[in-house]
Write a structure and sequence with these properties.
- The protein is mainly α and about 200 residues long.
- It has six helices and two strands.
- Strands 1-2 form a two-stranded antiparallel sheet.
- Helix 2 packs across helix 4, helix 2 crosses helix 5 and helix 3 runs antiparallel to helix 4.
- It is elongated.
- About 20% of the residues are buried.
């Protein structure tokens, strides 16, 4: 196909007593031959395949991070159902409800970190993205220790707020205290997921 290309043309202006150089368009043949429909279809198929691979590369670790806590709860329930009494199995319900509800308050760590890091990377501010990730990680660990201490000291009251029968409160509170030990790791994982996505984007 032909594409216009500007060629020099000298134009004289007698009234002004000078000549200027203008440029006019002239057609030139492109060195690249036109592609057929089959070649375009192959190119579109390869592009879609590459996009699907990119989506899976990001979605796999992100989905694993979201499913980690529910899978841990399912494993706990399976182990208690296999080796523990009915009372201990029933106590998992209110304790898991409290643990999950408390974590919902800190989902802003993932959202805020993702938005700020993405905005910094879009403007080419690598140092700003790294600094915000470090600050978010420190905040997540600090909130994790604070939340873990709160759950540990208020476990019986928090379990009682679920409305469960009084027989379940001591066992559920004990299980909740055990789960609270991993609270800093749970909140820190929300930020480290963004850190991994940043590394994938940089790669």
């Amino acid at each position: 196909h032909a594409s216009p290309r500007l060629a020099p043309m000298r134009v004289c202006q007698p009234a002004a007593g000078r000549c200027v150089t203008a440029r006019r368009a002239r057609p030139s043949l492109s060195s690249e031959p036109p592609r057929t429909e089959a070649e375009l279809a192959i190119e579109r198929r390869d592009w879609r395949r590459e996009m699907r691979a990119d989506v899976l590369r990001f979605a796999g670790p992100a989905l694993a991070g979201v499913l980690a806590d529910p899978l841990m709860s399912v494993i706990d329930a399976l182990c208690c159902g296999r080796f523990c009494s009915t009372l201990q199995l029933a106590s998992l319900g209110p304790s898991l409800a409290v643990f999950g509800f408390m974590n919902y308050f800190f989902f802003f760590l993932t959202a805020a970190t993702t938005v700020r890091v993405t905005r910094a990377l879009a403007t080419g501010d690598e140092a700003g993205a790294t600094a915000f990730l470090s600050s978010a990680f420190t905040l997540a660990v600090g909130c994790g220790f604070g939340l873990g201490a709160t759950i540990r000291f208020l476990a019986p009251r928090l379990v009682g707020l679920t409305g469960c029968v009084p027989e379940l409160v001591p066992v559920a509170a004990r299980y909740l205290r055990i789960r609270s030990l991993g609270q800093p790791v749970v909140l820190a994982s929300m930020v480290t997921q963004v850190r991994r996505d940043r590394a994938e984007i940089a790669a």
